Amino acid sequence: MPPSPITRAEISRSRLVENFQRLRSLARSNTNDERCDLLAVVKADAYGHGLALCAPWLAEAGAKWLGVTSVEEGVAVRRLCPQACILVMRGLLRCEVEELFDAQLAPTIWDIEHLDWLAEAAQHRAFAAESIPVHLELDTGMTRQGLSLAAEEFAAFLNSLRAIPSLKLDGIYTHFASPEMLDAEQNRQQWAAFEQAVEQIVAAGFHPQWLHAGNSSSVLGQQVAEPLATLATKLSARCMMRTGIALYGYASHFIGEQAAMAETARASLEPVLTWKTAIASLRTIEAGRCIGYNATFVAPKKMRLALLPVGYADGLNRKLSNRGHVLVRGMTAPIVGRISMDLTVADVSHLPEAMIGEEVVMLGEQNGQRVTADDHARWAETIPYEILCAVSARVPRVACE
Ligand SMILES: *Cc1c(COP(=O)(O)O)cnc(C)c1O
């Protein structure tokens, strides 16, 4: 066996699977529909957790649908999960269409151009009627991507879609701008716009199999499930909710009257990733010595310092300089001085027993203590999503139970 890498991200299979099962149960009980599915989002290398590990684990755990950003990511998932339904959520580029067909991915569409490119590429292949599944995204207020609900554009798109017999409108979906703000008026407006537009599409003669909406916050916040299920039943469709970050054990913080319930659901999830390294070197310094680039830390007393072979090139956010901490022997060890590209210094003055080679947890648990992506996000003034996605390719992802 090769030696296990000193710096590594351990990815827990059981935690990922348990989070998936918990979230699916929640979606099923809130929709009161045992067939409600959960689309597991594995974009961005499974939020930094490693696609090659996570996609097959989720598929084995029962995730029928996997969500990716690009066709390139979709092709990678297809190799790993031959049976999965794979939704490309970013929309489509012309240069991606052939590969999309080859890998049998379902594209998200909303522009007339998407239809033109699909029709053009489909001409050279003998597709049967309604054999290419497409999902239509509706822009209900996020103003980022999705079909405009302005009457003329909306009608023109549906007419063009109808004119391509090989396409099958398999799903219709939307995305909310502030799903963690449980009382936000915008959520109600977006939902009302979605409901109305979907009814119009069905009235125009389309029969989507899937209606889906929301993200992790929507599943945990439990507001979308019931109206989604009601609408799906009314239109003889099936409902699905999409979830990304919660699969990996995190979520946005909830705001609003029902926040406590959502936070309880969130607390039942377990972080999947543990980022570890080891002490590379130790030294004791006298008071007055400066640490690191630009001498941003001056030792106020005699100190014991641990050198960690991790830096911003590994994805450790530089804003954690003089702000964050790591875990050594289940105790916090503050980061002192600037984080460098490949090196970080931690104060272990209170840990005289700490030795070279001993385990350091950058993110995760050690002896019952935790440093979470929420902590990193607070220190770095960002969101846990960015912290997790930032763990760089230099840090090998290692499977663990
Ligand atoms: C990324 C993404 C999600 C998942 O969002 P989370 O907040 O991570 O659950 C859901 N839907 C769409 C369209 C996305 O792009």
Describe, in plain words, how this protein is organized in 3D.
- By secondary structure, this protein is of the alpha/beta class.
- The chain folds into 2 domains: 13-267, Alpha-Beta Barrel (TIM Barrel); 273-400, Beta Barrel (Lyase, Ornithine Decarboxylase, Chain A, domain 1), CATH 2.40.37.
- The protein has 13 helices and 20 strands.
- The protein has helices at 13-31, 43-48, 51-60, 71-80, 97-102, 112-122, 151-162, 185-203, 216-221, 225-234, 259-267, 373-380, 384-390, and strands spanning 8-12, 37-41, 65-68, 85-88, 106-109, 132-137, 167-174, 210-213, 238-243, 273-278, 281-285, 290-291, 297-298, 303-308, 325-328, 331-334, 344-347, 359-366, 369-371, 397-400.
- The longest helix has 19 residues, at 13-31.
- It starts with 7 loop residues before the first strand and ends with a strand.
- Bound molecules: pyridoxal-5'-phosphate.
- Pyridoxal-5'-phosphate (PLP) binds at residues 41, 43, 89, 175, 215-216, 242-246.
